[in-house]
Amino acid sequence: MNSSARSARSARSVRSALGAVSLCCVLAVLGACSSDSDSADSSTTTSAKSEFLTAAEDRGEPTLEATDPVTELVIVDDVVGTGEAVKPGDTVTVHYTGASASTGKVFDSSWSRGEPISFGLDQVIAGWGTGLVGMKEGGRRTLVIPGDQAYGANPPPGSGIAPNETLVFTVDLISIDS
């Protein structure tokens, strides 16, 4: 089976696994007010962020299941957002859950910490930096990331991630902060 067929089969596996997952949008609220002249824009932005966070919380933490390993990044929009779209290099605020594809075991989750996290797309694994581009605020996206776009042969010590492990993340985009 060629890599395109395997990727398509993996995407179908992810979609099937996600059928059991309640749709969730993990969103973070960052209040950012500047000058008084921006107050109307800031309150609108804060309102939209609150709306996206509330939607994520209503959907709740996603449940991830084991899936086949992949050799190419698989992107599945579980919920298409209505806000701005992520561009390369943006800073974003998200809620997420990450699991090993081989076992479905969660190794990290902002949900378990009780709050979203913000980071620049140039500060994360390649699969995130590429996989979140084009995603709209308020959306939920599942990324199936091959090992070479995740941690490769050197996963973080104590993470429970095997070398070259395919990873699955479900990400709720709360806001674009840049």
TrEMBL record:
It catalyses: [protein]-peptidylproline (omega=180) = [protein]-peptidylproline (omega=0). Its EC number is 5.2.1.8. Residues 35-50 have a biased composition (Low complexity). One of its GO terms (molecular function) is peptidyl-prolyl cis-trans isomerase activity. Keywords: Isomerase, Rotamase. Residues 35-66 are annotated as: Disordered. Residues 89-177 form the PPIase FKBP-type domain. PROSITE patterns: FKBP_PPIASE, PROKAR_LIPOPROTEIN. The keyword Isomerase applies. It is an enzyme of class 5 (isomerase). Pfam families: FKBP_C (PF00254). This is peptidylprolyl isomerase. It comes from freshwater metagenome.
